Amino acid sequence: MWLAPGLRRVGWTARQRPGLMAAAMTQSTIDLTDPSVFTAWATDTIRFSDQDNAGHTNNVAIAAYCETGRLAYAYQVLLPDKQPGETFILARIAIDYRRESQWPGTVRIGTRPVKVGTSSLILGSGVFKDQVCLATAEATVVFRLHGKPAPIPERIRARLEQ
């Protein structure tokens, strides 16, 4: 690998440590392609501008639909009684594109917790159009209190278990 003069290589690549990358991926046992696993839903409109050159809904639009579902879940379930300084921020997202879709239409986005940690949780989402799963996603979000990671409060944990 070529590096500009004065720079040195830092870190590792997936080729050097392939097992580490696989371990970092979440292996959810929840079938996010099944609409019945979701209790929280949001909707979004497929816009004409969401298409790529082939007329398919593009990957950036799918990521935006996942964001719509994630934020709706945050405001409906995680922080309906948000206290000053509390927020969740996105740390990681992995999206699996499962089917093509075209404009026009509406998508439904189901979101649910997949795993809860001390200060973070993984939310699973499914994006559906006409009962067909277009994409699934897993997003790691971190609870922050006054700008710093903090343990998820018990009142939020209780809502996650419902």
Task: Give a verbal description of the structure.
This protein has 162 residues and is of the alpha+beta class. Helices cover 21% and strands 35% of the residues. Strand 3 and strand 4 form a beta hairpin. It starts with 17 loop residues before the first helix and ends with a helix. The N terminus is likely disordered.
In brief, what are we looking at here?
The chain is of the alpha+beta class and 162 residues long. Helices cover 21% and strands 35% of the residues.
Label the structural class: alpha+beta
Distance between the termini: 51 Å
The named CATH superfamily = Hotdog Thioesterase
Please indicate the count of domains.
Answer: 1
The proportion of residues forming helix, as a percent range, comes to: 10-25%
Order of helices and strands, N to C?
Answer: HEHEEEEEH
Number of strands: 6
Q: How would you sum up the global shape? A: elongated
CATH topology: Thiol Ester Dehydrase, Chain A
Number of helices: 3
The largest sheet is: 6 strands, antiparallel
Strand percentage lies at: 35-45%
- The CATH class is Alpha Beta
pLDDT averaged over residues: 87
Instruction: Using the CA coordinates, give the radius of gyration.
Output: 18 Å
User: Any idea what the CATH architecture is?
Assistant: Roll
* Low-confidence regions: 1-26
